[in-house]
Amino acid sequence: MLHIQRTKAKNLKSRAFFLVLFFTVSYTSFSQKVLYQEDHDNKAYYFGISLGISKASFHTHLSPGFMEQDSIMVAEPMNNGGFNLGLLATMNLTRRFELRFNPQLMFTERNIRYQLKYKDQDFGYQVDKKVESVITSFPLQVKFNSDRIGNFRVYMLGGGKVDIDLASNAKARKADDMIRINRFDYGIEAGVGFNFYFPSFILSPEIKISNGLSNLHDRNENLNYSRILEAIQSRMIVFTIHLEG
């Protein structure tokens, strides 16, 4: 089932990429010569909504104790899909630069797969530890915009974020057999996107990479699956559609 879910998520992202590519080529080739929303770049600020899908995982650092034990051979982070909903507020700084605030609610799951040397009576030689998360993310980004080509424009972005995991299990009483994850995280983001101007709105598909900088791991010395990990950091690739006004 895990293999099927990963395959479906991979196929979904491939289809989304080719759909955006096809739409970009078609739109720039057959778009009307009339410029839509010519005065949009003169607005001091504007708002929008966001809808996206993500591929999330952990980046793990093994502890020195990993070499001192012989029961766990491999601890491998797995890629898992998720989706996010958000709001958008953008302020014009200059002709090229904009400041954007994009708070989001993200639903995702990040797993770590362990390969065991000795067979477990319940799981065999392979154990998956699941971490389900409901994250409120608060990214603040700077956008660099290209010139408009008709009703089309490219932009790049970069910035930082603060995340709060509402489903954090670090303080859960029944989390002794789980990988415990702290509630707060912060990190950096970078991405690229496209603006397609329509008479009443702007459609902006975007892809970005998000890397957490803090150590999320609440280490548990009594749990072998946790003891062998020194640090855990978040990693995410997000494809988002913004509807801006």
Backbone shape: elongated
Mind summarizing the main beta sheet?
10 strands, antiparallel
**Amino-to-carboxy terminus distance:** 41 Å
Helix run count: 2
Task: Give the total of domains.
Answer: 1
Alpha-beta classification: mainly beta
Report the radius of gyration as a whole number of Å: 21 Å
- In CATH, what is the class? Mainly Beta
What integer is the average pLDDT?
86
Low-pLDDT regions? 1-9, 27-31
Number of strands: 10
* H and E string: HEEEEEEEEEHE
Helix share, percent: 10-25%
Strand % is over 45%
CATH architecture: Beta Barrel
CATH fold-level label: Porin
What this model shows, in words?
The protein has one domain: Porin (Beta Barrel), CATH 2.40.160.20. Helix content is 13%, strand content 56%. Strands 1, 2, 3, 4, 5, 6, 7, 8, 9 and 10 form a ten-stranded antiparallel sheet that branches. A hairpin with a 3-residue loop joins β5 and β6. The longest helix is centred in the first third of the chain and has 29 residues. The N terminus is likely disordered.
